[in-house]
Amino acid sequence: CIFPMFLSSFYRKSLGRSSVRSRMSLKSPKAYNSLQKGAVIWDPKPLQVKKIFEALKKGLNEYLEAHQAELDYLSGRHKDTKRNSRLTPSFSPLQKQIRSVERYIRKLEFHISKVEELYEAYCIQCRLRDGAANMKHAFSLSPSTKASRESLVELYKNFQECTEDMCFIEGALEVHLGEFHLKMKGLVGFARLCPGDQYEVFVRLGRQKWRLKGKIETDDSQTWDEEEKIFIPNLHEKFEIKVTELRGLATILVGVVTCDSINFFTTKPQAIIVDITELGTIKLQLEVLW
Question: Ranges for the FAM65 N-terminal domain (predicted)?
């Protein structure tokens, strides 16, 4: 049988790697409750992690390019100043600004390299996990022997270790996602919004929540009791937005929508307009700055 030879090779690769958690300081992994009471399963999401990684890296590179352009501009100004003045101070405000931008560029470069390092480690664990799963399936189809049962036990153990490492890396990667600053821009509804109408908007991202109330004024302007909120991005959760109309003691559900955050990893503020009702008669407008 050729399986033991492949299994031996797999073990060498797996056991030869140093523990992911011993090489980096990581957040606690996300554990998801299974249907069986008291049981806990690990649930990494490789495809979602790949999407977030690509969006994050693109956004970080945008910031890096913008600051590199600023550094080039400041350096050009500094050369012109030195050329046109014999009495340039040894450490002018312009030089201080240049050094500040240089430090920020170095931080960005380190940030990008750390994100790439984490994702590379994640991909390695993912491939090892897929290999263990494939070999588990192959062994389960072969005749049951003592050796095959022992191999299945070892493969299951290895599969669990890779899964756990992937979840730890997901937690570590979330630390590098930054912050989303959300600004309330108001509801858009034309004839559906009348003076005196009161609404409640509830925004949730995982365990993070933002509840705010607003009123349509007589001049069609809107007043909201809170206009800005900071959310910490995560890998798996989408924004959930719920809008209700307040009528005395009663509340009427206007609509509930979800919004993916992948497109928010960019240097420019994003104007987000989402349809709250199915026909789009009431929309919610937000501004997101990463």
Answer: 12-290
Residue among 256, 244, 255, 257 at smallest CA distance from 197: 244
Q: Rounded CA gap, 118 and 53, in Å?
A: 10
Q: How far are the Cα atoms of 30, 65, 197, 201, 274 from residue 165, in angstroms, in the given order?
A: 11, 33, 51, 38, 37
CATH classification at residue 255: 2.60.40.150
Could you say which of 149, 175, 201 is where a domain stops? Answer: 175
Domain span at 227: 179-289
Gyration radius (Cα) of the chain, Å: 27
DSSP state of 266: S
Fill in the DSSP letter of residue 249: T
* Residue located via tokens 């929540």: 209
Residue 10 within any structural domain of the chain: no
**Whether residue 283 sits in one domain with residue 197:** yes
- If asked whether residues 107 and 123 sit together in one domain, one would say yes
Residue pLDDT, tens place only, 236-245? 999 999 999 9
Q: Read off the pLDDT of residues 82-92 as tens digits, 9 standing for 90 and up.
A: 766 655 555 57
Rounded to two decimals, what is the model's pTM?
A: 0.79
- Lowest-pLDDT range, 103-107, 148-152, 226-230? 148-152
pLDDT digits (tens, 9 = 90+) for 109-132: 999 999 999 999 999 999 999 999
* Residue whose pair of structure tokens reads 């994100």 in the numeric block: 115
